[in-house]
Amino acid sequence: MIILKDILYKVAIEAVKGSTEIAINAINFDSRKIENNDVFIAIRGTVADGHEYIETAISKGAIAIICDTFPENIVSGVTYVQVKDTNRALAFIASNYYGNPSANLKLVGITGTNGKTTIASLLYQLFKKAGYKVGLLSTVKNVVDDVEYKSMLTTSDSITINKFLKEMNDVGVEYCFMEVSSHGIAQKRTEGLQFAGGVFTNLSHDHLDYHKTFAEYRDVKKTFFDQLPKGAFALVNIDDKNGPVMLQNTNAKKLTYALKSYADYRAQILENQLSGLLLKINEQEVWVRLIGNFNAYNLLAIYGTAVELGLDTMEVLRLLSELESVSGRFQYIVSKGNITAVVDYAHTPDALENVLKTIDDIRTKNEQLITIVGCGGDRDKTKRPIMANIASTLSDKAILTSDNPRTEDPEAIILEMEKGVEPQNYKKTLAIVDRKQAIKTACQLAQPKDIILIAGKGHETYQEINGVRYDFDDMKIVTELLEQLNK
Question: Which positions in this protein are listed as binding ATP (predicted)?
Answer without folding.
Answer: 112-118
